[in-house]
Amino acid sequence: MRTKEDNVNRQHAYNKDAPKRHVSLSANSDLIGNAKKAGINLSQTFEDALVVKLRASLEEDWLKENKEAIAAFNDRIEKNGVFGARQRRF
Q: S-S: 6 plus which of 2, 35, 59, 64, CB 3.0-4.6 Å?
């Protein structure tokens, strides 16, 4: 059974309150130098980019896991239409 915390973590893809962790990365030295000169916060930029990649990966996984259910739902809608469609006046 999922808890409220599980849903929050799924929605955000990670625990925003987790402590920071030092990591060692390699990147183009000219790129890093120009970014620093421009006042870009490298740590925040890295986190922002990682969140985008992580969410895309989680979405891809979710779509794979639910492929059959999505196809079944789409087939049902195609055959039967949308619930209440006959009652619409527009």
A: 2
